[in-house]
Queue: 2 jobs
Job 1
Amino acid sequence: GQSLEQPSEVTAVEGAIVQINCTYQTSGFYGLSWYQQHDGGAPTFLSYNALDGLEETGRFSSFLSRSDSYGYLLLQELQMKDSASYFCAVIHTGGFKTIFGAGTRLFVKA
Amino acid sequence: DADVTQTPRNRITKTGKRIMLECSQTKGHDRMYWYRQDPGLGLRLIYYSFDVKDINKGEISDGYSVSRQAQAKFSLSLESAIPNQTALYFCATSDLPRDGGPILYNEQFFGPGTRLTVL
């Protein structure tokens, strides 16, 4: 089967750097995506890694290593508004189904 | 402004009732999705559609059905609602793969969600 595992919660201090990991077990996928969801809101797209390596978008970076079945989202210069849930997701090559991880709740403290 | 809308936003119903959740989009996307979200379980795919003649089951399609009435409309039905279908339901859309090559990009745009409670 296919599954993605993320830590359930992470806490960090404003201004710091935090890394949210995503490990997966799936037979084939097109790439790894990350979404952010604030309480009461809808998920919004953050980044996508089709190939191994690091993708940078402002304060956020995302990394993928297919050989290690592992990816992460890196948030720098944390702000209070970054407190949210973060989900990794893959598009499975079998039928193009999108599979999401259970999400990581990030708490940013002052 | 291009958008994904869902109706109703909140619904309380009783066990055994038939419920329809509607999704409309003005983004011009061909691909549409229905997810449910439960605490601690993330988003789980119920059904997805890549065009009006293409409907596919997701991870958890049992107890649900869908209808793709037009490119812009994708409805989710619960034929006989049960309490464990109480959840937050999201509709999403996405564009076609870029450049005709392998799917290298699939940003999904989500609606605001429908909170469904089945008593």
Note: Chain A has a mean pLDDT of 92.
Job 2
Amino acid sequence: EDKVVQSPLSLVVHEGDTVTLNCSYEVTNFRSLLWYKQEKKAPTFLFMLTSSGIEKKSGRLSSILDKKELFSILNITATQTGDSAVYLCAVSSGPTGANSKLTFGKGITLSVRP
Amino acid sequence: DTAVSQTPKYLVTQMGNDKSIKCEQNLGHDTMYWYKQDSKKFLKIMFSYNNKELIINETVPNRFSPKSPDKAHLNLHINSLELGDSAVYFCASSESRGPQYFGEGSWLTVV
């Protein structure tokens, strides 16, 4: 069975800190790894990673994938209170794109204190 | 314009009732999904449809029946609701190789 494990499960930091969120996986027919941010409602797409070693960056957030060691990290620099959310890691797997499904980790709850 | 929209957002109903949740996407995507998020906030796939064809059907009670009248719509009908069906149900859509985009969720409470 496909498995995605995130760590730590929760994290409290102060504004301005840098955080690193971890995600490891064991899946068959890996296609991509995705990060989402969930506040009160819909998970919001952050990054999709398909190749090892290529960093994706968006403002203060960045992410990288290691397909050999089967993990990814999400970095947030200069954290702000608006970064407080649950960060979800998901792995897309399946024999074809149309047959792919997302397997989610349990999420990391990040709280940024002023 | 909301890209993936679900109705209703909130639904409180009694055990044994039948209810439906509707989902529409205006992104032109060819694949749509239903996910269930339980009280522990764990998101799990239920179904996916590609161009109106059922592709993924995870281990879900057959009281749950998805229907896709066209590729922009995927509805979820639930028969004989049980207490354990209380959860947030999320609809999502994607292109075959792209990320999935989620609706805002439908909060179902069975009493």
Note: The mean pLDDT of chain B is 92.
